[in-house]
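Sequence in, structure out.
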Amino acid sequence: MDLCHISYISMDSCHISDNCLDSCHCSDISMDSCHISDVSMEMLRNIERFRAEEVSTWYNIRMEIFNIYDNLQKCGVCLLITDEITPRQINLLWNQVESALHSQLGTLKKEIGRLHLLDSIEKDAHHLEGRLNKLEHHLRGEGREHNDAKSTEGNQRPVLDGELKDIEDYIASLVNRLLTAGFSDGHPVFNRVQCIGRRTSHLRTVVDNNATLMPPPGPSENKVLRAAHCQQPSDRGKMVETSSALQHVQFCFQWINEKYTLLEGAKYGNNMDMVKQALDQHEKDHEEILNLKTEIDECVMYRKLSHERQKCLVSLQDFLHEAAGELVWIEEKQGLVCGLGQRLDKFSISDEEMYKTLVKDIASRKSQIKSVEDKGYAMIIDKHPAIETIMMCISNTESRWTWLQQLLNCLDKHIKDICAYHKFFHNVKSCKQWITQQTEIVNNCMKRENIPFKELQEMKIECQDLQNELDKCEQIVAFHSKTSHDIIPLKQQNREVTSPVKVYSLCVSEHPKISLELNEECILQNTNQEGLWMVTNSHGEMVTVPAICMVIPPPNQEAISFADRLISMLEQLKTLVKTYDRKLTENMVMLTIKFIKTWNLQK
């Protein structure tokens, strides 16, 4: 298993997700009905299974190999690998895989949702056709009983009006659902709903004119009915009275029915004069029909324009809604980051856990934000009319995301400084405690008297060991003394400023007409606003920035003083140990002399 293998897996995964989407579109196009394709569902299950099993497994392998790679780098091992399989390139490929899977899975679910919608609408259309068949059968039966038409009309008219109104509202709802989902003229289900609308309009005309049901409208009337059927008002009478456009449409309906009845019943004549007269009249009627057709064609053109605008508005609304959701999320995380920045001097374990969770959340959100941006760029490529709005939204999202990343980097630098601060003081305090303990032990030993020679020998060995430990401690104290000059004055971070303090910027910060560069030296003026600092940049311009973006640089006088005291204590201990060692030597010599004096040389 190696980095090269993972890179090949990443590229193959991208091809798999692309092929899944192509197959999804093919299955949708090849459907003869609106029932959900088993192929699409199987592809969805395969992609989800692939993410749960394959992607998860390879993610663990990738992290394990990266850990091995990092350990080898720390050990100074030089790996001869090409640029194509470096960890950075592998991460880029891996991000492409995750982005592609997320995008294709969303597209596939959207397609399946569209198929669900078509299946539901087709069932509703079948139900409406059954209701229309019953109404047509009922009206044809009334036509055959022409003698009782008036009494029948009086009894049945309210029922017929209610039934037709219910069907018209239902058709308008179906058309709206289809348009919202992106279906338009030419789709089989849309055409079927339009056909039902034309039948309903024809029945409405028959009922309104108190006429006998005629054959369905011919091809010459289809365009007029198609242009108007999806705009049936819920309250027909009131809408017609208040809308000049609907009054014109109603007039067209009546005119078409009159012409239809006239042409169907027109005689051809049985001699030359009657035929000529009929031809002249028909030419006039035909010219009127052509003029109306031109007007209807314009209406159809305007309707298509309206549909396109509605589609663009829906897509723009969806995009802006998603982008707004991401901006709200980014704003929330910015607040959390700045909130942690205000507690740096009291940073606790719970704050550290919150920071780790925050880093994880932001890293996992990157693909979702990129998906929203890609959707906006796709709309731009498709030449969406609101390109300026989309570009502005994308730019705003990218700038907010970049700013969040910079704030997180600033927080990361602060936390590293805090860790160095606490580690330094922990180490120097431990060192001070050890020096104090050893000083006390040596002082106690020096106070003892009449120590046996054997015990003096043991104490001499211990003193030599202590001197060796002091040599090591001297190196540690020298390191702490050097490190003390790099420790930040943490306690000053959230204190009120009584005099101007030198600070440095941790990131690039853009403000109206003013910008701060990375590591730019500024002067802190005041910290009156919570979480905000007012600083003067290197050009003498005043600007207010989040406190987390600035840091008060070293030195920390407390750390330097502590290290200096440590050096002084160590020198005192070394002097004391030398005195102690000399005293032990003297005591051993005196005991030896005393012992020799006890010898009896004569014996």
